[in-house]
TrEMBL record:
Gene3D superfamilies: YVTN repeat-like/Quinoprotein amine dehydrogenase
Xref: Pfam families: DUF5074
Record InterPro entries: DUF5074 (IPR031815), Host-pathogen_enzymatic-act (IPR051200), N2O_reductase_N (IPR011045), WD40/YVTN_repeat-like_dom_sf (IPR015943), YVTN_b-propeller_repeat (IPR011964)
Superkingdom, natural source: Bacteria
PANTHER family: DIHYDRO-HEME D1 DEHYDROGENASE, PROTEIN NIRF
Lineage: Bacteria, Pseudomonadati, Bacteroidota, Cytophagia, Cytophagales
Name of the protein in its database record: YncE family protein
């Protein structure tokens, strides 16, 4: 029988509608050597909020929040600066040096902007359900693409000097986040239980490692270990949408040199989402069952008590001061972001656009 796997992306496309903007108050040719991407050129005083928008409606947007003034500068920055819409389902944004790469999933493109003024400098198009971008040097990046549900995905190799796709690498089904660690690129294949490991010199998959079901997010801690957020997989009947099968999620940790030697922290039911790490890379954060949990990078078991009792669609940690950013995305109207101290105490909140899912600190 043909089965459907509904990820969070597909599920949220059912939550569509149009709403008005709201502002909230406080709510308690040679690629060159693999040198790694250049550091972002920003001061860290700005926070860019990625707003997906409503599925099949090209109203995705980028909001700009100033930490200095503690106010939203603009809730549709790309459109204001460039005089045109950004696109349908803005999935993610990555800064490489002084340029931003905005991945627009349903429109099948990446918009490249100058971070100095947010003016568009290039468009990488003809992509198939692009998800996340990661640079391995100042001239080369990789981009995950779903391609088609139920079939193998791919990772596009992008020349950042020309903003063109030079080749593609086949990986597992529904590849999500990418992580450059110890000279290798790790790809989370979310519709199975594997991580593809790519050699950036040869652009070839040199290993496929089994983890747990539904890997989607990746982080590297201060000890060099790689963490994988595995949310589990639920299969649905394509006609009745009845649940056919479901597996629980886990957090998985391993050293890059021995990816099959893993520490698995399983969840009794359901699974985690939004795995992120702080600037010191010694504390991880994730969402689970309508709460946010904090986990030490040296932990051998999951925490029992949440840090914040709130259900967030997106989660971010300011690398400068560990301020926690959580986004609420009703999709029927505009969303909002709540900020918390590292202790979990609420600071304030602000209105953004529709479907806020992640944060870029610059």
């Amino acid at each position: 029988m043909f089965q459907l796997h509904f990820s969070s992306f597909l599920t949220r496309t059912l939550l569509t509608g149009i709403g008005a903007l709201t502002l909230f108050g406080c709510d308690p040719e040679s690629d060159g050597p693999l040198t790694g991407p250049p550091a972002p050129a920003g001061t860290g005083s700005n926070v860019y909020v990625v707003n997906e928008g409503q599925f099949n409606t090209p109203n995705g947007a980028i909001s700009l929040f100033s930490k200095t003034s503690r106010a939203v500068v603009d809730n549709n920055l790309f459109t204001k600066v460039n005089g045109r819409i950004l696109g349908d389902v803005v999935q993610s944004m990555t800064v490489v040096g002084d340029q931003g790469y905005i991945v627009v999933n349903a429109t099948g493109k990446v918009e490249v902007v100058s971070m100095a003024d947010f003016k568009q400098v290039a468009t990488i198009d003809r992509l198939q359900q692009p998800r996340y971008l990661a640079a391995v040097s100042s001239s080369k990046a990789y981009l995950s693409e779903w391609i088609e549900r139920g079939k193998p995905g791919r990772v596009a190799v992008i020349d950042l000097r020309t903003n063109t796709v030079t080749k593609s690498i086949a990986v597992g089904r529904q590849p999500e986040q990418l992580l450059l660690a110890n000279g290798r690129l790790y790809v989370a294949n979310s519709d199975e239980n594997t991580i593809s490991i790519i050699n950036p010199t040869s652009d070839a998959v040199e290993a496929t490692v089994q983890v747990q079901d539904g890997p989607s997010s990746l982080a590297q801690d201060k000890n060099g270990n790689i963490w994988v957020g595995c949310g589990g997989i639920t299969r649905y009947d394509p006609v009745t949408f009845a649940v056919l099968s479901s597996t629980n999620g886990s957090l998985v940790r391993f050293a890059p040199g021995s990816p099959t030697n893993q520490t698995v922290l399983p969840f009794a039911s359901g699974g985690p989402s939004n795995l992120v790490i702080n600037g010191a890379k010694d504390q991880l954060y994730y969402s689970y069952k309508s709460a946010v949990y904090q986990l030490s990078a040296s932990a051998t078991m999951l925490p029992a008590t949440p840090l914040v009792r709130r259900n967030f669609y997106g989660l971010g940690i300011d690398p400068q001061d560990n301020t926690i950013y959580g986004s609420i995305a009703p999709f029927t109207t505009t969303g909002k972001v709540i900020r918390y101290q590292p202790t979990g105490a609420a600071i304030d909140s602000f209105g953004v656009n529709i479907g806020p899912n992640s944060f870029v600190f610059y």
